[in-house]
């Protein structure tokens, strides 16, 4: 099934509450105690740094009203606005770590405490015991997403670490480690009443409710971006987003007391507190009103990633053991629903977590029909003898005013006769079930007795059985009924909610007592707008996301329709991988746009695993090419070279690294015929830069800021304008905390013998977490030389970029990296690496070239045959995009910082330029 993006609930930190931050860096201070650092807005190195801890990905606010709290209804309405507000958009855009993509949240019904109300609550003596008791009695149920906002009634004061509300602080937030809940952590804040002693001291408004909303915003933003601060004892995980200089605190502390207003979708105005924007280097509440010096940013989230966390699930009477595949953003769980005396169901919960603007699709197409299965591939599917829908007959059911009904039918008509079917014909046909093209019948329209909430077992099974009993539908051996629901219909399956835990699923019902056929196969497809948007697809178009989810369920229903009935790895299980699930699970969220050659319609289809191809594909390799793909290529080849040969139809192998120029003077800066060609390989749509410093690196802070400038500036805008494709938009990236290698250092390192093993060990150890859009530039300390393919740095080359296959140890196929030697030695040898007069400027020029190459052609180093569909943008004679222009120029970024960079070839202007 198609899973919704879910937090990494496997992340758990053990420990006890500490006073490490008892100076209240994580609290809201009194307004009069704030000292505003005017230089903060222009200081180059002010901002928040990510230290590796968890964030709250899809916050669920549960207000707790302690006593007769004022503004209870208004506060509930405010939280409903806040979790989907521009404040959340900023957080989603700037503070979604690759492992923890953040999305809009929701608000749960409030809890009211009216008995045994005390006039003073101490955090350690009263608040924590109160919350633990609520957990023990079942009054509240903490999860990794739940945030408990404890609001105090008038006359109730609170104390924390010796300080008192309205005297020493206005609110505070910390974390309670729970030994009585599976969630382990309980996130909460305490917000005193603002009508009494706090009035006038905890906000600049004369309206207590406005001050209350400002404080609530402050705490909400900090809970989402740094929930585990109470467990942190040093600048490392579980600390998440915190001041890079360790002085100003968290995202809201930077802007403490800076209130603003924002309007909801109904035009109602709310008071919010501004939060810090790393991108704009100032306090903002909305990108649209951030000022003329900013650009309005698209909200984006890191791409989904595949992973292989194994969590066994068994259920009543259908005790098939399956495993949960988690991704830093996606969780692919396959579960079995309980079997009733009259109906048997199977539901698979596989999370298709994707992101809104960061795509994770694959370029691959699958094997030729005569190809043999790839041997010993851990991702291969096994056939266990169960049914396959060899002649699938799709009968869509539209429940209420489901969106895009006509286009949905057309989509299924495309699928059943598409290269997607050719792939399953090739890979999943067995003697008993030779797969053929399918058919699509007229839809069934349900217009009466509609519900806004349905449970799979209690509502959907009886609903489908009734359709059979009344003759509305007549299931056959190969019928598949995908149910598409109208907006605002929530679905529960196994206690999990749609658009929270899953995006769709497929199941099986035993109808042998009312039909000539034993089983009925169905799919559940919630409306993909509303709450599903952002968690169930990488597009802003809900229909495209629906197609991705629908194709996922279609492929799984066809090849493994009886999964939920299997009690062992045997019939009725069809095609299945004991560790990774079904064919679509293995390629979860890898979607691609394809064009129907018969009518020109463009559809979004999720890739599925091909045993014969050994990769995630949407069509056999011998099928006609289909549009393009984004990052997350899947292939079985392994290499670390960056090719300089032209892609062709031969099997020629790459031979060298990025070559060193042979003259100190700039080469011609471009002419007609300089345009590179796009070969449909991956490009980095939203690059996440994680520098690796090997040894003692000079100017680390300047290097950090350089990468920030390259990834978030008009330089990046230029790359996006010139090298985005119809299917992949290159947007702004971000720079993350560097990783330093300080032990077992060598003065000479070889790419194959040292660099590659080092990177793999770092992945295995969890020191780095490569994803489909991650780029690791490795900077070598002065005096360290690197060799590659018999060539030597600063003698034969200046730098190189490469890719290695980490599919056996990582959650994505490739790790993209570059190696940048210290340019002191290069300048001593000659000036061929750069024309700059200083070492740092020479380094900057080399960095900019490798950056451009990595964004536009990251997987080139993984090519063993130029027919491999992993080549991105490439020039037949000049190589990568970064090699097309050699002229260096001074470039000023949006923060008035000046850098020496290489120009970039503009396809539209037919010349080398430095910015859009």
Characterise the protein shown here.
- Strands 1, 21, 22, 23, 24, 26, 29 and 30 form an 8-stranded mixed β-sheet that branches. Strands 2, 4, 5, 6, 8, 11 and 12 form a 7-stranded mixed β-sheet that branches.
- Helix content is 19%, strand content 22%.
- A hairpin with a 2-residue loop joins β27 (490-493) and β28.
- Mean pLDDT is 77; it is low at 3-45, 290-375 and 624-672.
- By secondary structure, the protein is α/β, with parallel strands linked by helices.
- It folds into 3 domains: 25-289; 324-353 and 382-586, no CATH class; 677-913.
- α10 (700-711) runs parallel beside α14 (839-856).
- Residues 293-304 have a biased composition (Basic and acidic residues).
- Residues 290-356, 648-674 are annotated as: Disordered.
- Residues 310-356, 648-669 have a biased composition (Low complexity).
How would you summarize this macromolecular structure in one to three sentences?
The protein has 916 residues and is an alpha/beta fold. It contains 14 helices and 51 strands. The strands form 16 sheets. Strands 1, 21, 22, 23, 24, 26, 29 and 30 form an 8-stranded mixed sheet that branches.
């Amino acid at each position: 099934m198609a899973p919704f993006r879910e937090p990494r609930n496997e992340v758990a930190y053990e420990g006890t509450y500490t006073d490490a931050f008892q100076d209240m860096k994580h609290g809201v201070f009194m307004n009069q105690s704030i000292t505003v650092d005017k230089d903060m807005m222009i200081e180059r190195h002010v901002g928040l740094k990510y230290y590796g801890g968890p964030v709250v990905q899809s916050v669920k606010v549960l207000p707790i009203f302690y006593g007769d709290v004022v503004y209870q209804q208004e506060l509930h309405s405010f939280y409903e606005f806040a979790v989907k507000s521009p404040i959340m958009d900023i957080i989603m855009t700037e503070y979604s770590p690759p492992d923890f993509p953040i999305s809009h949240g929701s608000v749960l019904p409030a809890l009211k405490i009216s008995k045994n109300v005390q006039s003073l609550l101490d955090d350690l003596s009263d608040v924590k015991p109160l919350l633990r008791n609520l957990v023990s009695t079942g009054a509240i149920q903490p999860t990794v997403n739940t945030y408990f906002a404890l609001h105090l009634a008038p006359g109730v004061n609170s104390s924390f670490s010796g300080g008192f509300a309205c005297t020493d602080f206005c609110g505070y937030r910390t974390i309670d480690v729970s030994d009585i809940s599976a969630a382990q952590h309980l996130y909460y804040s305490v917000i005193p009443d603002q009508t009494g002693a706090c009035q006038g001291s905890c906000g600049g408004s004369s309206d207590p409710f406005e001050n209350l909303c400002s404080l609530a915003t402050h705490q909400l933003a900090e809970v989402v971006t740094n929930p585990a601060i109470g467990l942190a004892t040093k600048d490392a995980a579980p600390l998440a987003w915190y001041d890079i200089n360790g002085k100003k605190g968290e995202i809201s502390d930077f802007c403490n007391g800076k209130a603003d207003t924002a309007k909801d979708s109904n035009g109602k105005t709310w008071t919010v507190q501004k939060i810090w924007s790393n991108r704009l280097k100032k306090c903002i509440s909305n990108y649209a009103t951030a000022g003329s010096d900013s650009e309005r940013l698209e909200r984006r989230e890191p791409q989904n990633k595949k992973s292989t966390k194994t969590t066994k699930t068994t259920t009543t009477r259908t005790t098939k053991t399956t495993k949960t595949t988690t991704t830093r953003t996606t969780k692919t769980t396959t579960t079995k629903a309980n079997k009733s005396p009259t109906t048997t169901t199977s539901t698979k919960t596989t999370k298709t977590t994707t992101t809104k603007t960061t795509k994770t699709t694959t370029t691959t197409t699958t094997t030729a029909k005569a190809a043999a299965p790839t041997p010993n591939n851990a991702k291969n599917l096994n056939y266990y003898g169960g049914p396959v829908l060899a002649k699938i007959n799709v009968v869509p059911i539209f429940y209420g005013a489901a969106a895009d009904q006509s286009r949905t039918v057309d989509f299924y008509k495309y699928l059943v006769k598409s290269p997607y079917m050719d792939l399953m014909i090739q890979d999943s046909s067995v003697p008993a079930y030779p797969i053929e093209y399918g058919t699509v019948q007229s839809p069934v329209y349900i217009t009466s007795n509609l519900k806004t909430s349905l449970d799979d077992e209690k509502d959907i099974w009886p609903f489908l059985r009734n359709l059979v009993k009344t003759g509305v539908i007549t299931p056959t051996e190969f019928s598949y009924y995908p149910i598409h629901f109208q907006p605002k219909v929530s679905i529960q399956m196994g206690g999990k909610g749609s658009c929270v835990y899953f995006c769709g699923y497929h199941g099986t019902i035993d109808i042998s007592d009312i039909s000539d056929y034993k089983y009925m196969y169905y799919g559940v497809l919630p409306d993909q707008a509303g709450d599903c948007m952002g968690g169930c697809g990488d597009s802003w178009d809900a229909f495209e996301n629906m197609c991705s989810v629908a194709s996922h369920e279609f492929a799984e229903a066809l090849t493994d329709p009886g999964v939920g009935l299997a009690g062992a790895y045997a019939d009725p299980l069809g095609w299945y991988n004991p560790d990774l699930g079904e064919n679509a699970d293995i390629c979860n969220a890898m979607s691609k746009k394809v064009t129907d050659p018969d009518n020109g319609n463009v559809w979004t289809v999720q890739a599925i695993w091909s045993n014969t191809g050994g990769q995630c594909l949407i069509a056999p390799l011998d099928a006609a090419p289909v549009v393009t793909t984004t990052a997350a290529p899947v292939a079985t080849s392994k290499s670390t070279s960056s090719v300089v040969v032209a892609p062709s139809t031969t099997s020629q192998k790459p031979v060298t690294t990025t070559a060193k120029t042979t003259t100190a003077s700039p080469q011609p800066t471009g002419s007609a015929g300089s345009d590179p060609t796009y070969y449909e390989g991956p490009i980095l749509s939203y690059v996440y830069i994680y520098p690796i410093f090997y040894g003692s690196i000079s100017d680390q802070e300047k290097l950090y800021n350089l990468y920030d400038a390259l990834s978030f500036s008009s330089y990046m805008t230029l790359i996006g304008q010139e090298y985005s494709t119809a299917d992949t938009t290159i947007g702004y990236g971000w720079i993350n905390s560097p990783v330093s290698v300080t032990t077992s250092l060598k003065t000479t390192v070889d790419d194959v013998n040292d660099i590659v093993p080092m990177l793999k060990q770092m992945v295995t150890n969890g020191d780095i977490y490569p994803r489909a859009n991650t780029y690791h530039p490795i900077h070598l300390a002065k005096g360290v030389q690197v060799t590659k393919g018999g060539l030597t740095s600063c003698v034969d080359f200046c730098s190189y970029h490469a890719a290695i296959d980490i599919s056996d140890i990582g959650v994505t196929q490739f790790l993209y990296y570059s190696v940048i030697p210290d340019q002191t030695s290069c300048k001593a040898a000659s000036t061929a690496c750069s024309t700059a007069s200083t070492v740092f400027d020479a380094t900057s020029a080399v960095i900019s070239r490798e950056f451009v190459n990595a964004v536009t052609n990251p997987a080139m180093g993984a090519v063993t045959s130029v027919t491999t569909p992993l080549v991105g943008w490439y020039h037949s004679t000049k190589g990568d995009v970064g090699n097309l222009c050699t002229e260096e120029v001074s470039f000023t970024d949006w923060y008035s910082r000046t850098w020496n960079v290489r120009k970039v070839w503009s396809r539209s202007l037919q010349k080398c330029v430095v910015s859009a």
